[in-house]
Amino acid sequence: MADSVLRTETTARADRASTAAPSAIGARLASIAAVVRRLIGVPDYDTYLLHMRERYPQCTPMDRAAFERDRLTARYQRIGSRCC
Amino acid sequence: MPSTSSRLVQGVAWTLVALAGAIALGTIALSRGERISAAWLLTAAVCTYLIGYRFYSRFISANVFALDATRATPAERLDDGRDYVPTNKWIVFGHHFAAIAGPGPLVGPTLAAQFGYLPGALWIAVGVVLGGAVQDCVILCASIRRNGKSLGQMAREEIGTVAGATALVSVLGIMIILISVLALVVVNALRDSPWGTVTIALTIPIAMFMGVYLRWLRPGRVLEATAIGLVLLTLSLYAGKWVSESATWAPVFTLSGTTLAWSIMLYGFAASVLPVWLLLAPRDYLSAFVKIGVVLALAAGILVVLPDMEMPAVTPFIDGSGPVFAGKLFPFVFVTIACGAISGFHALISSGTTPKLLKREPDARFVGYGSMLMESLVATMALIAACTLTPGLYFAINSPAGVIGTTAASAADVINNWGFFTTISANELETLARQVGEGSLLSRTGGAPSLAVGMAHLFSRALGGESAMALWYHFAIMFEALFILTTLDAGTRVGRFMMQDLLGNVYEPLGRVSWYPAVVFTSALFVSMWGYFLYQGVTDPLGGINSLWPLFGISNQLLATVALCVGTTVIIKMGKAKYSFLTLIPLTWLVIVTATAGYQKIFSSDPRLGFLSHAKVLQEQIASGTLPANIPGVEAAQRMIFNDRLDAGVAAFFLVSVIVILTASAREWLAVIGGRKPAVSSETPYVATKLTDDGGLRTAH
């Protein structure tokens, strides 16, 4: 189960592999960290970047800071991200 | 197709699960007089969940919605890399669970332990399988078939504008009551407790430090910042201990209920107007970690220790005479255990972020139904932790001062005079308070402290022994308060945006989210709305939880009524009216429960239960000059009368909303079933998925 999560996470970030740690353990740690970040609700800039490159190569994507600001603002504006 | 032999194995396995569950349920239900192990409760609950998931949720996904792995989800079709992102189902599950799991399933079952463990345990297990998980899953399915629309939008489009407007107003109402009652739980846990107060207060600068760290020092290093935050959190626990032992500083941080109430209002206001990166986001990261960690620790603690239940299966208080909250077993056990069995609030999450993340349609079953089962398991564990306290101790912590007095001797006297439970001595109460590092544990109503004592009991038996009790207790309090304050701050901010939306229609500039005066004004307005109920609860001699928690339960079930009405309408319009029993069963039950509870809270002739008769008694006492000693004067009594009437008005508003939404829905159902309106589903049309099983894109062929 966890393995399949990690595998999809890694494939989704295939383009990032070159920037990740060189060793296999490092890559594995990086993908675990990616899962943990998504679990606690950190905005996922890499997926966004990948998406923009694939679908809208002609547009300039937001930089990391702008993207995070955008996501956090949206998150705390709407109901439906927090419960009793 | 599975082979005959593997189907046989599966059949045998499921029969065994059913058998184990039945034996456990039988043991719980039939044991009288002797103490039973928590293992029976856990087994019964887990087996019920497994059976419910395997068979009932399959019926929802296969027969009712016919979830289809080849059908593209909104996440795929509308993928924008921001809101709509196809995501692995385990991550969506974790995300969804972290969003729905709040303090509700911890507090509700703890309060309901007043009736003994049996009623609560049964309702948590049965209610979730037939009600709560069904609601979450149906709304999630309906939303993914409609591009991830929200509950309010679906109510307006499927039922009508009246239903849509009622849904919107009731969401605002539930937010106000929810935040005030949760804030009251925190106040009662921290009142006169320098250790707890210092620890919780320190979490605010810790979060702000993390915010600054992530903004300027090491941008984007969230896990690093969170790890530092967690270390600082542990240190704050020791800082609190140090302060509570210091003769100079302890009095400075020994705060009264009203001071704490004002501080929390100020905090809510600050969270609403400050930038989110500074306070809200880092707090959320911390809280998500602590939340998952403590839930796992609680499960491990219960499994390792396997404590006996000290509370009887059923207490004499099912007749409505209990000190924790007024009202008989029916309907109040169902109103009190809100979130662990069914929670309307979840429908907002199921139609919020989650439907925009699901990669494959069939994942809705696992995420929607499955995570609600997890939440219910948390509720069962909270019930177990509360019921491992001896009844005398449980009632000393959870009864208001108006009932048990303010000294250990008076509390022990009152509780022993009931003659229902094993006797408790004043000495025992004082010793326990000392063990957990508090001056007194009496009348810390709201559920959080008694759950913390229960957890401290469990954890210290597993790790650290009696000397670690105080640390574990304050750790548990810190975790509960962190939980609650994250709901409170995010809720206040969302409430502020809702106010801006509403008031923008009246005076346009008030709707501008970047105009500071509007932000400050609407934040202050929303904080004062929940702050009023909080202050009322803090100054109420009956403890406040007594009147506010049932109101919260009623409002949450009103929202569940809205959700189940939307679900039923969707199912009928799909042309599957024969399956509408799925949502009609929990809907009927909730309407009966909510209507009875609401009616009793307003009109009951028992002044402990009915708001209006309580106001009347106070009026007579003012007239005859016989006000009891715990009400400071005529002015205070008049304020209480006003509050009673206000609470009655709020309950009436919730009741009327239930009737409005139900009538509007029933008319729509009858029109469709009677053929006066065509059964047309508003689902977005089928589009084949392009995603392959491993998550990549299918190449064109």
Folded structure, characterized:
The complex is a heterodimer of chains A (84) and B (701). In chain A, helix 1 packs across helix 2 (24-39). Chain A has helices at 2-12, 24-39, 45-55, 64-75. Chain A has 84 residues and is mostly helical. Chain A is built from four helices and no strands. Chain A folds into two domains: 1-42, no CATH class; 45-84, no CATH class. With 701 residues, chain B is mostly helical. Chain B has one domain (7-192, 255-673): Amino acid/polyamine transporter I. Chain B is built from 27 helices and no strands. Chain B is globular, with a radius of gyration of 25 Å. The model of chain B has no long low-confidence stretch (mean pLDDT 93). Classes of the chains: A mainly alpha (84), B mainly alpha (701). At the A-B interface, helix 1, helix 2, helix 3 and helix 4 of A face helix 4, helix 8, helix 10, helix 13 and helix 15 of B.
Element layout with pairings:
The complex is a heterodimer of chains A (84) and B (701).
Chain A (H helix, E strand, L loop, with lengths): L1 H11 L11 H16 L5 H11 L8 H12 L9
Helix pairs in contact in A: 1-2
Chain B lengths: L3 H27 L7 H27 L9 H4 L11 H12 L3 H9 L4 H28 L6 H9 L1 H30 L3 H24 L4 H24 L3 H4 L4 H17 L6 H26 L23 H8 L8 H6 L12 H25 L3 H8 L2 H4 L3 H11 L7 H10 L12 H15 L6 H36 L11 H24 L5 H29 L7 H23 L7 H14 L9 H40 L28
Helix pairs in contact in B: 1-2, 2-6, 2-16, 4-16, 5-16, 6-16, 6-24, 6-25, 7-8, 7-24, 8-12, 8-22, 8-23, 8-24, 8-27, 9-10, 9-13, 9-22, 10-13, 12-22, 12-23, 13-16, 13-21, 13-22, 14-24, 14-25, 16-21, 19-20, 21-22, 22-23, 24-25, 24-27, 25-27, 26-27
